[in-house]
Design goal:
The protein is α/β, with parallel strands linked by helices. Helices cover 41% and strands 17% of the residues. The protein is globular and about 60 Å long.
């Protein structure tokens, strides 16, 4: 089977590349602006080609030449905060880029399954009585990134409705793991590793610890995306969310307990946001019923693996103490 991972040098894409290669598939990845370290995709760099999805000629060149059976569409500007300072660039990449990919598939006359990475950010603020949120909930995104993902999904569904390109949309909730940067788990585990390495003082500064998040390990997310490629209904929309929520305070406690040196926790008011969703938690029952997906990696293991990753990155071997 020919598998095309668009966004192969991103966090999720790198795991899909490794898994598809291990399964013996013919695999090609695209990259434009890598968001993981070069060492994290060095093992498959010879299978990656440059492609900026904002330009139709580039998406067509890749798709015409490779003619994939499965496409994972992960190429995107994926940072909500950045979308406020770069709204036009976010919309250009995520919306125009999606149209370019589907137009290239249509012009090539091929019939792949296209798994489209959508987002829980499409829902926006959700009332307590509607949590865990279902796919039928109204979409009220709060930032340009969320808006771009609504448009991405609508385009994918239109290409299925009008051209029968088999799009399957995955609304992805909080996902983390080794190689991740910029979320609470990555930030906490990296700072613990830096404390252990003696790079910063043994104080863990935190913001709001009272919010709750359902968290999925990236390996479980990759499994869900693979199952959707194999079993998802064309034109279907599926939440991919952790099965339980964790209070941020609990995550802080876990990483502090795993530290190899004493660490003090301090609340830093500069890290408090003007507003923050109290709970982010999706109902994945539609995904489970369709594919049989199971969340297998507990948060404790995820955090342990993330700490090990940062320790290796900083040159602190397992078993060493700063």
């Amino acid at each position: 089977m020919k598998v095309l991972v668009m966004g192969a040098t991103g966090f999720v894409g790198s795991y899909l590349m490794e898994r598809a290669i291990a399964e013996g598939h013919e695999v090609l990845g695209t990259s434009y602006n890598p968001t993981i370290e070069p060492k994290d995709w060095a093992s498959f760099q010879d299978r990656v080609v440059r492609c900026d999805i904002r330009y139709r000629e580039q998406t067509s060149q890749v798709i015409d030449a490779f003619r994939p059976d499965v496409v994972y569409l992960l190429s995107a500007q994926s940072y909500p905060a950045l979308s406020w300072s770069a709204p036009a660039e976010t919309l250009d990449t995520n919306v125009v880029g999606t149209a370019n990919v589907f137009e290239s598939i249509r012009a090539a006359g091929i019939d792949p399954v296209v798994v489209v990475a959508c987002s829980s950010a499409q829902y926006g603020e959700v009332a307590a009585e509607d949590i865990p949120v279902k796919e039928s909930h109204p979409l009220r995104p709060l930032h340009p990134y969320g808006i771009s993902k609504v448009a991405t999904e609508m385009l994918a569904l239109q290409y299925w409705s009008n051209w029968k390109i088999r799009a399957v949309c995955a609304r992805i909730f909080n996902t983390t793991g080794a190689r991740k940067a910029g979320d609470v788990c990555a930030d906490l585990t990296q700072r613990i590793a830096r404390i252990e390495a003696g790079q910063i003082e043994p104080v863990l500064r935190v913001g709001n610890q009272d919010t709750w998040r359902a968290i999925t390990d990236v390996r479980d997310l990759a499994s869900a995306l693979e199952l959707l490629a194999a079993k998802g209904e064309p034109g279907g929309i599926y939440n991919i969310s952790g099965a339980r929520t964790y209070q941020i305070r609990e995550i802080v406690e876990q990483v502090v307990a795993a530290a190899r040196v004493p660490v003090e926790v301090q609340v830093d008011t500069a890290l408090l946001r003007p507003s923050d969703e109290k709970v982010i938690f999706g109902d994945s029952s539609r995904l489970v019923e369709r594919t049989g997906w199971q969340q297998k990696v507990p948060l404790e293991q995820t955090l342990k693996d993330m700490l090990a990753y940062w320790r290796r990155t900083l040159g602190v071997a397992d078993g060493d103490r700063a």
